[in-house]
Write a structure and sequence with these properties.
Mean pLDDT: 76
Number of helices: 9
Number of domains: 1
Shape: globular
Order of helices and strands: HHHHHHHHH
Low-confidence stretches: 167-180
Oligomer: single chain
């Protein structure tokens, strides 16, 4: 919920390039968090057990969010390492670059505004009634055409060669039983 009390929606699609994929980056982060530094795995048995847990957490409890200063410091360090030295809006840099990237991909400006959440530009219809995500903009930001063709990530269909001799996904009785 935002300050006005209205629930906002957001989403992310897997990028066609795994090196640019936010979903893959999140997966690596969660693997590191729970399997490398051995933070306790979350209890998902009821909402109260996990609802206040922060994804990007501070140094204290899991319900403590990362501070603005820490967020800014990490992004500034990354920018410096990349040679990007003149960025003034450090924590909001991706909003501008994302809007420009979407524009170059042919996304209509109304969809870019909705994707970026620029509230001062939205009218009553968008504020009160539209809850769907701007899929054309999301497809473009994931590296796909905005024309509504199927959203598929080819790497989803690949069975790794290391596993193909050990398991036949289509006929393994355990997997078929679990799927039913």
């Amino acid at each position: 919920m935002i300050r006005t009390g209205r629930t906002e929606y957001s989403g992310a699609l897997r990028h066609r390039n795994p090196l640019l994929c936010a979903v893959s980056a999140l997966t690596v982060y969660l693997f590191w968090r729970f399997h490398v530094i051995n933070k306790p795995v979350l209890n998902f048995t009821n909402n109260e057990a996990w609802y206040d847990v922060k994804l990007l957490r501070g140094n204290g409890e899991v319900t403590e969010a990362i501070s603005y200063e820490t967020h800014k410091r990490y992004i500034s360090e990354a920018f410096t390492n990349l040679g990007l030295l003149n960025c003034r809006k450090v924590t909001h840099a991706a909003r501008g670059s994302g809007a420009r990237e979407a524009e170059m991909a042919g996304v209509p400006s109304d969809s870019i505004k909705r994707l970026g959440g620029w509230k001062q530009t939205l009218g009553a219809m968008e504020e009160s009634y539209l809850a769907n995500l701007p899929y054309d903009a999301m497809r473009a930001m994931a590296g796909f055409a905005i024309n509504g063709n199927m959203y598929t990530v080819q790497r989803d269909a690949v069975v790794p060669t290391c596993c193909s001799s050990r398991i036949n996904i289509s006929t393994d009785p355990e997997l078929v039983r679990e799927a039913s």
